Amino acid sequence: MSIEVELKLSASADKIQQVKDWLKEAGCSEENSVELEWEQKILHNTYFDTKNHRLRETDIGLRIRKDGERYIQSVKSAGRVVGGLYQRNESEHDISKSELQLELVDEPYLMILLEEAEEEDGPFMPIFTTNFSRDVVTIDYNGAQVEVALDQGQINCMAEDMTDTSQELCEVELELKDGEASVLFELGKKLIEKFDLALDSESKAERGYRLCHSAPEYTKHLNLVNLTSKTSAEAAFESVAHKGLEHWQYHIKKIKRGPSIEAVLQLNRALMFMQTMYSVFAAVIPRHSLIHLRKDWREITQNFSKLFTIAEEINWLKNSKLYGFHYKELELLEEGLEQAFKKAHQRFVEYLMTPSYNLKLLRFSRWLYLKEWREAIGDSNADKIQKKEIYPYATKQLQHLLRDMRRHLSEKVTLSKQDYIEYLPKMSRTLDIGLFFGCLFDDRARREYRRGWADIVANIQLLQQLVYLEKALEAEGVEDPLIDDTETETLVVLKGMREEALARNPYWN
């Protein structure tokens, strides 16, 4: 079992040739001026799964590659994707012909997953192919050996009932063969700056499954960060950061494929999740080590904000209909918002392809992957945060939040609808912190306690929607007493919910 570390960038055919020409100069060290020798391969890859894609559910890839006269069987785990940097386990074996030989898989964990998938859902069958030419060369770049692969070809679905059965692929892959992973980031940065390439967190396998799978995509929500009581404070920060970045990358892929209100709302969730992370872990990761990163994410947020604002307003109008608030007078407003959303979506997708965005994402990925905050805090402090256990830190953070909520939401405090709405961001951050540390505590107690606060947030969001609806109707010269009645009723409900939530025993006690 080997660990594959590679960086992937999307390109176009003309960019591929430009990269190839540039590498003729960059690929030779000062001590070695020999011209690079490119090898061209024609690769035919067949991906296998069960009829209901059980391997896909467990993030396992099963592939046979034909490379010249060789047949190579590969099993890959999903691993972790940081920006466009992939790190994953990979098992490869040469086989005699283009037929699966699963008995060769010598990694017990992967073998168990393969056996379970076959037992539960039947035999493996070809699902899709990727057929492409690969120009490949190994270069010496800043003291490291990096394999550069330039791929051009197609992904083809093998299902007979699919109409859109092929998709072009054109990408640059940088795989670390020997040396420091930092070199991949340096080379990736250079390629983005010179050729406007974009980081690509979607693998060929992901694209193949998406091409061949006709079922609707489900919305992915943020969930618990996987921690244990023995996890160090530093490792907890890393896990939270990876969770936020993973959520961002997942929905960025959806946004690139087309306009989606839900994907935009989830991107905002990822941004809020990571902003909360910075403040919660300020005692672990000092603010001065985050200055440039926070500046980068602020610029990304600024480019995203208009798209999010429009998506949020459309979502409020659609949700209001679920509560029975239908108004013919607002049809033109909704239609205008839909048109504005399409334009804002297009502008944001264009921004996602710019060097400005991709360099920021690469910088954050490098900072996270190489743990560059350690440089800012020194060896002694780095040692401390690696030894500091997260459990007492988490308990302290949660207790601090509860004191703040008791101060603002006590039954003795009278709150208007505007008071609730202004406190909503703090409530949302509180729920996110519950996701940060929830795995450290009893799951049943955590769920019961969290449910009360989640219901409060949902009712405040309802107030927020009603206020927006009220203003939109006012602009059209329309009044609806039902909105006032619903707001009044919601305020009464919220008061009772506050009392009940604050009376519960916290799950961390």
From TrEMBL:
Residues 230-487 form the CHAD domain. It comes from the Bacteria. This is Adenylate cyclase. Signal peptide: none annotated. Residues 2-215 form the CYTH domain. GO terms for molecular function: inorganic triphosphate phosphatase activity; metal ion binding. InterPro entries: CHAD_dom (IPR007899), CHAD_dom_sf (IPR038186), CYTH-like_dom_sf (IPR033469), CYTH_domain (IPR023577), YgiF (IPR039013). Pfam families: CHAD, CYTH.
